[in-house]
Amino acid sequence: MTISPVAAAPDGDRTASRRSRTRHYAMTPPTFFAVEYAINPWMDTDTVVDTALALAQWETLRRTYTDLGHTVDIIDPVAGLPDMVYAANGGLIVDDTAVVARFAYPQRAAEADAYAAWMAARGYRPAQTRHVNEGQGDLLVVGSMVLAGFGFRTDRRAHDEIADLVGRPVISLELVDPRFYHLDTALAVLDDTTIAYYPPAFTDESRATLSALFPDAIEVGTADAYVLGLNAVSDGCHVVLPAAATGFADQLVADGFQPVGVDLSELLKGGGSIKCCTLEVHS
Ligand code: ARG
């Protein structure tokens, strides 16, 4: 376990205790990334992708994780599956259970086979759901529970299947704004008890659920949400987030976290950023 002392504690005792934990991630390089179809409002098929730049930005993200001491597995990209770079969607791995995605759109359906093959090669027997689940795009582990989005992609009925498969409580949260079509575009897990989120992306009922569960949550503003600032990955201390989300970065510092900005502008053309490109193996 890596312990990173927080240099300053600007907000009293609570923030003095931010600790990183060594993480295990998996990432798929954007070798075949392109915007060939539009299945979310960020995507425009007239957009030209600079593949070399996408690869360089992705490599910077990978290096950021390894420089922080984390492990990154590389998953082989598949030609003809341009969104495979968004590895978070491949499934949910908790302890010895690996649940493979079942995608909402046919354009991404075959990614499930590629992610299942990777899981099998790592020694898991991939579990399937009957209903649509888009992996860690909508299923975020926080402490001993799973926060689960629905409304655009993952089917609410999959939430019960996930609870049974991983043996953890699943909290359903309803998304209402198509720009924030996956839970990980509107909510970031910062440590086992702390989250950040963009309230307007949720129904009133789900906002009430979140404020009851996480009274100390960071509420992020519109400017940061609209650069996908919440599509971030935290090790409990360092928070890797889109570089453009400067307001959120300031909020993180005030709360004792250490923001690490990374520019993934090419991947934003597909409607994804840091977290979308990162599948965490929770073990
Ligand atoms: N183009 C992809 C889609 O619309 C982006 C997925 C982003 N991934 C995520 N975890 N939010 O499905």
UniProtKB/TrEMBL annotation:
Gene3D superfamilies linked: L-arginine/glycine Amidinotransferase, Chain A (3.75.10.10)
Xref: Pfam families: DDAH_eukar
Annotated GO biological process: L-arginine deiminase pathway
Region listing for Disordered, in residue ranges: 1-21
Keyword Hydrolase: yes
Superkingdom in the source lineage: Bacteria
Keywords for this protein: Hydrolase
Example GO molecular function: arginine deiminase activity
Protein name (database record): N-Dimethylarginine dimethylaminohydrolase
